[in-house]
């Protein structure tokens, strides 16, 4: 047995289905658990290279889990070694086995699927990833393992894809009418470009945020910009940001300042309540129409001016 793997006692739990079991380190706590009987997953099979992450699109029974292990002296190899060993012992072929540097660092982190904070956290300079495949009589099984650490916790993300009972077929009790559903598309360049802009320029527009019409209520959904900001703040413990709301010039200055501040506060609330960022690390202010980035004479200009920006205060 790998010497590092032997350092951690393990406990068994099922991943995705009874056909696959992996032992987690003793003391591990399940933080997030999502199962889809019929789902899909893009399994990375190579590092991020030349602007692209190589992956295989898989469908079937998909399980996504995030685990926490308390400890101040954990390292990523210590976390991943026993899991890698179990996959190999179970007949899985390792496709990709890399650390932060060889995976592709920042770009790999934001090109591959990562469960949202606070369930999963990835230190951009300190993580490891393994993906593996196994052919069975029922089809292909796939597993990916992503691990990272903070000062006090080890984080492990497990994503498993197992063959469905009848791939591609749905048992029906009665005739149904189906309509095409437009897929939710997230621009994979948003998080990477956003954090780079924040680091280099000191501020960035959170351009994917959507508010209810005429309201300060932030629309439901997982916004890529907020996921990226949360990951950045978790990975950079000394960083603080200000969220600054902006409006077009329709209406009074007083009313627009109030609306823009409420929208900034709504974004702060999403980061604090849903993504686990301490409130003390985020300021929220509104400046109304005093800092336009486009002309308010056109619809497109007014749309651009209605925005929330993140401003880097300290790092």
List the SSEs and their pairings.
Blueprint: E1 10-14, E2 21-25, E3 29-49, E4 52-70, H1 76-89, E5 93-99, H2 100-103, H3 105-111, E6 127-136, E7 139-149, E8 153-162, H4 189-201, E9 203-205, H5 224-235, E10 240-246, H6 253-273, E11 282-286, H7 299-305, E12 307-314
Parallel strand pairs: 10-11
Antiparallel strand pairs: 1-2, 3-4, 4-8, 5-6, 6-7, 7-8, 9-12, 10-12
Helix pairs in contact: 4-5
Signal peptide: 1-18
Domain OmpA-like: 198-315
Pfam family, one: OmpA
Describe the structure.
The protein is of the alpha+beta class and 315 residues long. It has helices at 76-89, 100-103, 105-111, 189-201, 224-235, 253-273, 299-305; strands spanning 10-14, 21-25, 29-49, 52-70, 93-99, 127-136, 139-149, 153-162, 203-205, 240-246, 282-286, 307-314. Strands 3-4-8-7-6-5 form a 6-stranded antiparallel beta sheet. β7 and β8 form a beta hairpin. α4 (189-201) packs across α5. The model is unreliable at 1-7 and 167-190 (pLDDT under 50).
